[in-house]
Design brief:
The complex is a heterodimer. Chain A contains 5 helices and 12 strands. By secondary structure, chain A is α/β, with parallel strands linked by helices. A 7-stranded mixed β-sheet of chain A has the order 2-1-3-4-12-11-10. A 3-stranded mixed β-sheet of chain A has the order 5-6-9. The longest helix of chain A has 18 residues, at 177-194. The longest helix of chain B has 18 residues, at 157-174. An 8-stranded parallel β-sheet of chain B has the order 8-7-6-5-4-3-2-9. Chain B has one domain (9-156, 206-267): TIM Barrel (Alpha-Beta Barrel), CATH 3.20.20.70. Classes of the chains: A alpha/beta, B alpha/beta.
């Protein structure tokens, strides 16, 4: 099973490593045609303004929307979460608008406020080490969105059917359980699609 | 909850990978850089080529410039402190700058000691010409590296030399036996533990960008081809005829560094690049890369 990692900018190699630890093959995606070869997609951390611009430039907006319409799972971490969101707080234009959430960028402050902590995530047995770097927050979720974890009462992990989003960077630690969770989503989706 | 850990500091640099960090001298340039797709901006009073032209002592930027830049962009803002200038670095940290560059572009404040970078919550990037410098800076707490190159010259040759040297030294260390590693740690003037890490993983424990002399989209792509994780562009952008177009072209060439048709396309009609300086024409005192040790 193949999971693509959008490779326009950001922490691509780390996600590919975590995906392979979770038992699937990670593939860097630089061109939209490559989306045909993968069963799931990760939009990594990086700078959301840069990733958003390059996605528009290279025709990824329609291609990823179509990918999502087919029910194929997408996992956004940090900048990836911002790119998935339907609404961004402030006057900034949202990107893919796939997930029924409102996000706030740099919600914890600047780099000196970046931190790591242990987090309870629904569906994962023991606490997950979560690294928050100039991280966004989920301010509101729509009816179809399940909240998987909170930090100080703020939403930091959420799922809407085949879409998964986290404010932090599971790819920066050796703990690949969140990737395992996502690989499981991809596996059950492709099994269902083959029936 | 812990702030300022190595994971958080080094992770911040990981998020910059595949990106372009641009030197800017005011809020207006910062906005142009962000709109062009820069992953961060370096707020400066003067770009390296102007520092070269002006001569004299180059210091940390006026905090007003740094604050103005921080106000207008949502991407990370970096700023430079002089080598060994603990207080300039602390002042910049207090302003809320996201990344500090202990930089040879400015006139060193200390000819023996670099800043103890472990003593900061905000991460540091430092320049290196070889593996010895790279590991000494990591030992002092740097969370990101960049080649020194020869800043403000528009001449890529030194950045190429530094990137190639570091990579070939890593390959050499990778293949050493344990007894050779002890002697190599002494030769390079680095800690045995850091060198052992290189031996075991075959790579640096932090991100390594290219910097110093990148003047065209093809220069940026060349550095990516040589294994850089991303690029810093200093004087190149805002000294060019059409900064906006030039900045976008560098961003695209960095992302698609192996797509030569695309690089050809974005390189069209960019106007005159920086004139550039032949390295052998620089006097020893003008060589910024020899600052730091």
């Amino acid at each position: 099973m193949k999971v693509g990692v959008l490779a326009l900018q950001g922490a691509v190699a780390e996600h590919i490593r975590s995906i392979s630890l979770a038992g699937a093959e990670g593939v860097p995606i630089k061109r939209r045609e490559q989306l045909q070869d993968v069963d799931g997609l990760i939009i990594p951390g990086g700078e959301s303004t840069t990733i958003g611009k390059l996605m528009r430039k290279y025709g990824f907006m329609d291609a990823i929307t179509q990918f999502s319409t087919q029910g194929k799972p997408i996992f956004g971490t940090c900048a990836g979460l911002i790119v998935l969101a339907e609404r961004i707080q402030g006057d900034e234009e949202a990107h893919l608008k796939l997930m029924d959430i409102t996000v706030a960028r740099n919600a914890f402050g600047r780099q000196r406020e970046s931190f790591e902590t242990d987090l309870d995530v629904k569906g994962i047995d023991e606490k997950v080490r979560a690294v928050f770097i100039r991280a966004p927050l989920i301010l509101e979720v729509g009816a179809g969105v399940e909240v998987l974890s909170t930090y100080k009462d703020e939403i930091v992990t959420a799922r809407q059917r085949h879409l998964l989003a986290a404010s932090y960077h599971p790819e920066l630690t050796d703990d690949y359980r969140l990737h395992q969770y996502f690989v499981e989503m991809v596996r059950s989706q492709s099994a269902a699609a083959q029936k | 909850m812990e702030t300022g850990t190595s994971t958080v500091k080094r992770g911040m640099a990981e998020m910059q990978k595949g990106g372009v960090i641009m030197d800017v001298m005011n809020a207006e340039q910062a906005k142009i850089a962000e709109a062009a797709g820069a992953t961060a901006v370096m707020a400066l009073e003067r770009v390296p080529s102007d520092i070269r032209a002006a001569g004299g002592v180059a210091r940390m930027a006026d905090p007003t410039i740094v604050e103005e830049v921080m106000k207008v962009v949502s991407i990370p803002v970096m700023a430079k402190a002089r080598i060994g200038h603990y207080v300039e670095a602390k002042v910049l940290e207090s302003l809320g700058v996201d990344y500090l560059d202990e930089s040879e572009v400015l006139t060193p404040a200390d000819e023996v000691f670099h800043i103890d970078k472990w003593d900061f919550t905000v991460p540091f990037v430092c320049g290196a010409k070889d593996l010895g410098e790279a590991l000494r800076r990591i030992g002092e707490g740097a969370s990101m590296l960049r080649t020194k190159g020869e800043p403000g010259t528009g001449n890529i040759v030194e950045a190429v030399r530094h990137m190639r040297l570091i990579n070939s030294q890593i390959r050499k260390v990778r293949n050493m036996s344990k007894d050779e590693l002890y002697a190599e740690a002494k030769n390079l003037g680095v800690s045995y533990d850091l060198l052992k890490g290189i031996h075991e993983t075959g790579k640096l424990p932090v991100v390594n960008f290219a910097a110093g002399g990148i003047a065209t989209p093809a220069d940026a792509a060349l550095m990516m081809h040589l294994g850089a994780d991303g690029v810093f562009v200093g004087s190149g952008i805002f000294k060019s005829d059409s900064p906006e177009k030039f900045a976008r072209a560098i961003v695209e060439a960095t992302t698609h560094y192996d797509d030569y048709k695309l690089i050809a396309e974005v390189s069209k009609n960019l106007g005159t690049p920086m004139k550039g300086i032949e390295i052998s024409k620089l006097s020893p005192a003008e060589r910024m890369q020899d600052r730091g040790w």
